């Protein structure tokens, strides 16, 4: 249960979650579907996620609070995303993760259906991590509606994610996780842009991917507060929210 709640901290987390939805839509990562969540800053056993709505128009009043099993704290008859198990299962499995994003960026999709590896090919993409595993629902669940809408599916996805920062979902999309909203926004944008770069470069010759050491050192640098705050200010401005 929640102890002493810092209302200012909670309000800030909810505000940043609204901005994250708008930014991801503005940057072409999330379309009419997809969603972003943030762990409750005062209760690790809960998280915030919008009601079921297009990310481009998510507002403060759309943000709902959930238990990790996806149970809404105050539903008020609002429609909810079916894929809440993605968020809850990852928060359960990864205490270090405080933000989860799920999207269907079109440039990433070819890597979900071909088996071609998606590895960092330019320095900004180091934030996606050295390994981007692929989860296939067929292996455990057979034919489904292709949504991760049960907790067993969520746990299976979280297991494939492991300690990585990104995971692909066959024929569906991707999930990006991180310590905070700003890191997840940066990693989501550069996952998409790295996929675009690889697709554009593969016919020109062999791609010189970043080395594991380059990924580790550059990723650590790009996840610093200085770097993520600079990126956040840029994305917030592009989404039309200057001065925040």
Work out the helix count.
8
Name the average pLDDT: 95
Content of β-strand: 5-15%
- Determine the N-to-C terminus distance: 31 Å
Largest sheet: 7 strands, mixed
Order of helices and strands: HEEEHEHEHHEEHHH
The stretches of 5 or more residues where confidence is low (pLDDT under 50) are none
Give me the secondary-structure category.
alpha+beta
Sum up the overall morphology in one term: globular
Q: List the strand order in the largest sheet.
A: 3-2-1-4-7-6-5
Q: What is the strand tally? A: 7
Helix content: 25-40%
Rg on CA atoms, Å: 17 Å
Tell me about this structure.
The chain is an alpha+beta fold and 244 residues long. Helices cover 40% and strands 13% of the residues. The protein contains eight helices and seven strands, in the order αβββαβαβααββααα. The chain has helices spanning 7-26, 84-93, 109-114, 138-141, 151-161, 181-201, 212-222, 225-238; strands at residues 35-39, 46-50, 63-67, 99-103, 134-135, 166-169, 173-178. The chain has a seven-stranded mixed β-sheet with strand order 3-2-1-4-7-6-5, with helices on both faces. β1 and β2 form a beta hairpin. α1 packs parallel to α6 (181-201) and α6 (181-201) packs across α8. The longest helix has 21 residues, at 181-201. The two termini are 31 Å apart. 43% of the residues are buried. The mean pLDDT is 95.
Structure characteristics:
40% helix; 7 strands; alpha+beta; 244 residues; 7-stranded mixed beta sheet
Describe this structure in a few short sentences:
By secondary structure, this protein is an alpha+beta fold. It has 8 helices and 7 strands; from the N terminus they run αβββαβαβααββααα. A 7-stranded mixed beta sheet has the order 3-2-1-4-7-6-5, with helices on both faces.
């Amino acid at each position: 249960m929640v102890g002493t709640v810092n209302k200012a901290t909670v309000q800030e987390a909810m505000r940043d979650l609204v901005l994250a939805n708008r930014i991801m839509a503005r940057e072409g990562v999330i379309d009419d579907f997809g969603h972003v969540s943030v762990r409750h800053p005062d209760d690790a056993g809960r998280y915030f996620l919008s009601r079921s709505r297009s990310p481009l128009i998510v507002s403060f009043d759309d943000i709902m609070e959930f238990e990790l099993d996806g149970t809404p704290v105050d539903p008020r008859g609002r429609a909810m995303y079916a894929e809440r198990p993605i968020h809850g299962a990852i928060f359960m499995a990864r205490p270090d993760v405080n933000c989860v994003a799920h999207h269907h960026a079109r440039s990433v999709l070819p890597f979900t259906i071909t088996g071609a590896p998606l590895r960092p090919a330019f320095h900004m993409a180091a934030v996606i991590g050295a390994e981007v595993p692929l989860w296939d629902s067929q292996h455990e669940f057979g034919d489904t509606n292709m949504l991760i809408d049960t907790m067993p599916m969520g746990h299976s996805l979280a297991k494939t994610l492991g300690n990585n920062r990104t995971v692909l979902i066959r024929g569906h999309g991707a999930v990006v996780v991180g310590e905070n909203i700003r890191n997840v926004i940066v990693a989501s944008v550069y996952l998409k842009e790295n996929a675009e770069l690889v697709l554009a470069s593969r016919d020109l010759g062999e791609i010189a991917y970043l080395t594991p050491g380059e990924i580790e050192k550059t990723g650590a640098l790009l996840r610093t507060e200085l770097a993520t705050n600079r990126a956040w200010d840029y994305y917030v401005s592009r989404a039309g929210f200057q001065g925040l």
